[in-house]
Design brief:
By secondary structure, the chain is of the alpha+beta class. The chain contains ten helices and twelve strands.
C-alpha cells in the first residue's frame, strides 16, 4: 500500500467517524442533507455559506417542531423539513431544481415509513410545488408506490397538493448551469475535457453541477423511523430520466429493524448499487454499524464504480452516520434536546 493510498483511507475513515460520533450520549432525532454537490471551498464565500446554513437550520427546526407535537409523526417531520429545502432556490429540489436538456424542470421525490414499510414516490412531476407532499399523498391515498409524469401531477392535484405554473421553478442560477452544460456538450473536441472515469460521463463536471438533492431522516417519540428525499435531478438530463431519489431501496429507504437512509449523488450508481437498502441490509443482517455500512457502500462500491455522493443514516437508537465521497455535503442534525449542528465540509 502506498503512503498516498494509506493517507486517503485514513482521511476517509476520519470523515465518516467524525460524522457519526458527535452524539454518543444524546439521541439524534432528525437529520437532513442538502446534497453532496457543494461549491468548492475556494468558491464558497462566507456570505454564501451563511445562506446555506440558514436553510439547513430552518429545515431542522421545521422538522423538529413537528416531532414535538402530538400526534405528529415522523412523516410530518420529514415533509416539513424537506418542504423548506424545496421552497429555497439554493438547493436542487422544488424551486431550485435543475433543468433537463430541453430546459424543463422534472422533479422526483419519495418518502418511506419504517414502521409499516409503506412508501410513496413521484417522478417527473412538473407542476407540483412540493413534490415531497405528492409523494406522501401517493403513500397515503393510493394503493401504489410510484407515480410518474402527467399522471402523478394529476393525482397530486386531485388530492389537494399545491399546483404551480412550471415557470415557478425557474432560477437564473440553474439556467446558467444548463447553458454551461450545453457549451461543454457541444464544444469542439479540443475544448471538451475528457471525463476522469470512463464509466461516468458526468464525472468531469464540478459536483454542484452534477447533483444536489435534499433529504431527511427522522426518529419520532414512538421509536419509528422515516426517510424522505427530493430532487430536481441532473443538469442536462434527458427528458424522462428518473434518478435514485424516488426509487425505494436506491435513494430512499426506512425500516425500524435497521435504519432510515436518504442518499444524494450520481443517481445511476446508487440505483445499480441499490444503495439505501444495501446499507440497511448490512446493518440488519451483518451487524455492522451505520458508519461501517455507509463507508462500504459509498466509499467502496459506488466510488469504485465511478460514482460520487453521500448518505445520511439514522437508527431507532438515535445513532447517526453522515458519509460522503465528494468534497463536502450540506448536512445537519438536531438532538432530542433540540441542539442543532449544521456542516458543509469536513467540519
Amino acid at each position: 500500500m502506498t503512503r498516498t493510498f494509506a493517507v486517503f483511507w485514513l482521511v476517509t475513515y476520519c470523515l465518516v467517524a467524525a460524522c457519526s460520533a458527535d452524539d454518543t450520549a444524546e439521541q439524534v432525532v432528525l437529520a437532513v442533507h442538502g446534497g453532496a454537490g457543494v461549491l468548492s471551498q475556494e468558491l464558497m464565500t462566507p456570505g454564501a455559506a451563511q445562506e446555506y446554513r440558514k436553510v439547513l437550520e430552518a429545515a431542522l427546526r421545521a422538522g423538529y417542531a413537528q416531532l414535538q407535537n402530538e400526534p405528529a409523526t415522523g412523516r410530518d417531520a420529514v415533509v416539513a423539513a424537506i418542504r423548506v429545502f424545496e421552497d429555497s432556490p439554493l438547493f436542487n429540489a422544488g424551486k431550485g431544481a435543475a433543468f433537463t436538456r430541453e430546459g424543463r424542470n422534472e422533479l422526483d421525490a419519495a418518502i418511506m415509513d419504517g414502521r409499516t414499510r409503506r412508501a410513496g414516490a413521484v417522478a417527473g412531476v412538473t407542476t407540483v410545488k412540493n413534490p415531497i407532499v405528492a409523494a406522501r399523498l401517493v403513500m397515503e391515498k393510493s394503493p401504489h408506490v410510484l407515480l410518474c409524469g402527467p399522471g402523478a401531477d394529476a393525482f397530486a392535484r386531485e388530492f389537494g397538493a399545491e399546483i404551480v405554473d412550471p415557470a415557478y421553478f425557474y432560477t437564473d442560477l440553474r439556467w446558467k448551469m444548463l447553458e454551461d452544460w450545453r457549451r461543454r456538450q457541444y464544444a469542439p473536441p479540443p475544448f471538451k475535457p475528457a471525463p476522469p472515469h470512463p464509466a461516468n460521463p458526468q464525472a468531469g463536471l464540478p459536483a454542484d453541477r452534477r447533483f444536489g438533492t435534499v433529504g431527511c431522516v427522522s426518529l419520532d417519540r414512538h421509536g419509528n423511523l422515516t426517510a424522505g428525499t427530493s430532487t430536481g435531478g441532473l443538469t442536462g438530463k434527458l427528458p424522462g430520466r428518473v434518478g435514485d431519489s424516488p426509487l425505494i431501496g436506491a435513494g430512499t429507504f426506512a425500516d425500524n429493524q435497521s435504519c432510515a437512509v436518504s442518499a444524494t449523488g450520481d443517481g445511476e450508481y446508487f440505483i445499480r448499487a441499490v444503495a439505501a437498502h444495501d446499507i440497511a441490509a448490512l446493518v440488519e443482517y451483518k451487524g455492522l454499524t451505520l458508519a461501517e455500512a455507509s463507508r462500504i457502500v459509498v466509499h467502496e462500491k459506488i466510488k469504485r464504480a465511478g460514482g460520487e455522493g453521500g448518505v445520511i443514516v439514522l437508527d431507532r437508537h438515535g445513532n447517526l452516520a453522515m458519509s460522503y465521497s465528494s468534497e463536502g455535503m450540506y448536512r445537519g442534525y438536531v438532538t432530542r434536546s433540540g441542539r442543532i449542528r449544521v456542516m458543509i465540509y469536513a467540519d
